[in-house]
Design goal:
Layout: H1 2-19, E1 26-39, E2 44-57, E3 61-74, E4 77-91, E5 98-109, E6 114-131, E7 134-152, E8 155-173, E9 178-188, E10 196-207, E11 212-223, E12 228-242
Antiparallel strand pairs: 1-2, 1-12, 2-3, 3-4, 4-5, 5-6, 6-7, 7-8, 8-9, 9-10, 10-11, 11-12
Length: 243
């Protein structure tokens, strides 16, 4: 329930702020559902990923809300119950190569043994390439993180740290209908280099209609503090609209 309320609050803040800014706001809503099912005589496993994104774009500002829920079971045992909600702001990204960003992120992950994780921070980004068929963006900044993790079944660990957040984001149009995009993060702690987070996601999309695409997604996450990682390869559909 708290995840749903966080999602609604994020979208509500975005909508209210941009509605007051004028009539030139462009909205981009996207929903993606992917999954995989494996069933044999003695094994049954499934993983389902739901992702909802809302972007609001004006001349100088772009505000994005991205929310992902991954749920999985194997032989009736829970393997994934992972939720991430991100709200980020880009300033001057479409007007110049060097731009500024701010971010707030909440995560909870059964598979990575994260009970709760809240990050907030800011930094700069650079548009290496920004053309109709290809884009490449790199960014870097500082995040403050407060977390509660469970590295062992009977052990709960609460801590705060500052992290450097380095990101590579890319999008490539392979043909008129086929595209590949991805985002990859490296987030080491500033106090302990052996405390780091890795996040990587890539999506291959084939456009069936203007609003509907077939997708194949690869997602990898690693948390050094809990010594946990996950790799998800899934297939599904994505629907989007611009208004």
């Amino acid at each position: 329930m708290k995840y749903f309320l966080f999602l609604c609050l994020s979208i509500g803040i975005i909508h209210k702020g941009f509605s007051q800014a004028g009539d030139t706001t462009q909205y981009h809503l996207k929903y993606r559902v992917t999954g995989i099912l494996n069933k044999t005589n003695d094994t049954r496993s499934q993983v389902l990923t739901n992702a909802l994104g809302l972007s609001l774009v004006r001349k100088k500002i772009e505000l994005n809300s991205n929310n992902v829920w991954v749920y999985g079971r194997q032989n009736k045992q829970l393997t994934n119950n992972d939720f991430t909600s991100t709200l980020n702001l880009d300033f001057l990204k479409e007007l110049q190569r060097l731009y500024y960003w701010g971010l707030a992120n909440f995560a909870s992950s059964y598979s990575l043994k994260i009970n709760s994780q809240l990050q907030a921070g800011a930094g700069i980004g650079y548009n290496v390439l920004n053309k109709p068929g290809i884009s490449l963006v790199i960014s870097d900044g500082i995040l403050y993180e407060t977390s509660e993790m469970q590295p062992q079944p009977a052990t709960t660990e609460k801590y705060n740290t500052f992290r450097n957040s380095f990101r590579i984001k890319h999008k490539l149009a392979l043909s008129q209908r086929l595209s590949l995009d991805g985002a990859h993060f490296w987030q080491p702690s500033l106090s302990r280099f052996d405390d780091y987070l890795i996040q990587s996601s890539s999506t291959l999309s084939y456009q069936l209609r203007k609003w509907l695409s077939l997708t194949a997604a690869v997602t990898y996450n690693k948390v050094s503090r809990t010594q946990r990682e996950n790799l998800l390869i899934s297939f599904g559909l994505a629907a989007e609209t611009i208004f």
